[in-house]
């Protein structure tokens, strides 16, 4: 027979479990309230997040100019203008070749549609012209019946674009002020906080900033790898618009999952209308291989090394962020997880017991020195 349970130990275990459960409920409640407040202030926080991400990219040249003796305002202005010129150059690099070859692309699209129609009219589908006409009429009728929905969606899209422009302008101004006054932020924050917070918060903020910079640099490197490998594949196959497609691949790498799908879709479509089905399938295979290597090998390895996170944590963070908040959640999941890890490590440092001092062992005698022999006692007379 097994020994009976001790009533005292059972009550103590239940009290401990109840106390831990209550503490966890309070923590979860506080986390839920914090997330609710962040959601209410998201229109202000989103430009702030974008500005911080942009500042991590533009701070190294600004820091270089400041070390050369440039005034902070002048260095921030020059770097901000240079960043805007680079962004405009990227847009021109994409739009000018597309505009110059737009006629060829349109002809390719028309020919591709005609080839698809000819293929559908033969076996095994045997789709005739009358069936195509019925399908077109049905699509037009469906479109006419959905005018209200389309107008609402268009209005929502216009509002989204306007909000995006406002967010971009605000983020650029915030980036300028971060570049100009960023080094003075931590001393100011230290002076504003009372007691222990004046030490803890600046340390956590400094470590979080370093972590955010590592994330942006690793993401940029992964995007560069994607652009180079996919660009080489497109160039070997003779697909037009190689440089715009490579630039688009690099830029879209900063938007996880959706960006890669969009850039891959554009590359496959252009290969289809310009080179045909065979090259389009080869391009699709190249993109799938590169994206699999990027998502499962390069990105987890680089981010886990730069952010101090295991590769599995990176993958789980992106999955959880995408399921909770879509594209924005996927974009912010990894840096948020890294910052949480920074805070957790700092809390563990502060709560850890200091190691007990160990007594120094007796130093070993120098092996090169031979001690003097002990003289034997003199015999008694």
Folded structure, characterized:
This protein is mainly α and 381 residues long. The chain has two domains: 42-138 and 151-181, no CATH class; 197-351. The protein has helices at residues 7-40, 42-67, 72-100, 102-121, 129-145, 147-181, 185-192, 197-237, 242-252, 258-275, 277-307, 311-351. Helix 4 crosses helix 10 (258-275) and helix 8 (197-237) packs antiparallel against helix 9 (242-252).
Task: Please give the domain count.
Answer: 2
Q: H/E element string?
A: HHHHHHHHHHHH
Helix share, percent = over 70%
Cα gyration radius (Å) = 32 Å
Q: What proportion strand?
A: under 5%
Continuous helix count:
12
The poorly predicted ranges are 366-375, 377-381
The strand count comes to 0
* Global shape: globular
Assembly type? single chain
Span from first to last CA?
83 Å
pLDDT average, as an integer?
A: 75
Q: What profile does the largest beta sheet have?
A: none
Structural class: mainly alpha
Subcellular location: Cell membrane
Membrane topology: Multi-pass membrane protein
Main location: membrane
Transmembrane segments: 20-38, 44-62, 74-96, 161-179, 224-247, 253-273, 280-299, 311-344
Which helices and strands occur, and which strands form pairs?
Elements: H1 7-40, H2 42-67, H3 72-100, H4 102-121, H5 129-145, H6 147-181, H7 185-192, H8 197-237, H9 242-252, H10 258-275, H11 277-307, H12 311-351
């Amino acid at each position: 027979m097994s020994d009976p349970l001790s009533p005292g130990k059972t009550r103590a275990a239940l009290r401990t479990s109840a106390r831990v459960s209550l503490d966890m409920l309070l923590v979860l409640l506080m986390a839920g309230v914090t997330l609710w407040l962040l959601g209410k202030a998201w229109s202000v926080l989103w430009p702030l997040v974008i500005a911080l991400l942009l500042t991590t990219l533009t701070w190294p040249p600004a820091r270089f100019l400041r070390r050369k003796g440039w005034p902070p305002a002048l260095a921030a202005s020059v770097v901000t203008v240079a960043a805007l010129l680079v962004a405009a150059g990227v847009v021109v690099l994409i739009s000018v070749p597309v505009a110059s070859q737009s006629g060829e692309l349109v002809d390719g699209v028309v020919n591709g549609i005609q080839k698809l129609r000819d293929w559908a009219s033969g076996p095994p589908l045997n789709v005739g012209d009358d069936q195509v006409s019925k399908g077109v009429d049905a699509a037009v009728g469906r479109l006419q019946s959905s005018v209200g929905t389309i107008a609402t969606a268009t209005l929502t899209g216009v509002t989204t674009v306007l909000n995006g422009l406002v967010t971009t302008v605000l983020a650029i101004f915030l980036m300028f002020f971060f570049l100009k006054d960023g080094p003075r932020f931590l001393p100011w924050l230290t002076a504003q906080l009372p007691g222990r917070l004046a030490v803890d918060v600046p340390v956590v903020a400094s470590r979080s900033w370093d972590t955010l910079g590592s994330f942006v640099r690793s993401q940029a490197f992964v995007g560069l790898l994607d652009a180079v490998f996919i660009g080489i594949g497109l160039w070997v196959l003779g697909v037009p618009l190689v440089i715009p497609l490579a630039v688009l691949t690099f830029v879209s790498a900063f938007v996880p999952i959706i960006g890669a799908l969009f850039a891959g879709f554009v590359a496959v479509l252009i290969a289809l209308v310009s080179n045909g089905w065979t090259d389009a399938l080869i391009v699709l295979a190249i993109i799938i291989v590169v994206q699999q290597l990027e998502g499962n090998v390069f990105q987890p390895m680089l981010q886990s090394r730069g952010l101090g996170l295991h590769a599995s944590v990176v993958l789980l963070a992106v999955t959880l962020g995408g399921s909770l908040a879509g594209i924005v959640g996927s974009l912010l999941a990894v840096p948020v997880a890294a910052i949480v890890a920074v805070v957790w490590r700092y809390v563990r440092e502060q709560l850890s017991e200091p190691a007990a001092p160990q007594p120094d062992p007796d130093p070993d005698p120098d092996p090169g020195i031979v001690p003097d022999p002990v003289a034997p006692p003199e015999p008694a007379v």
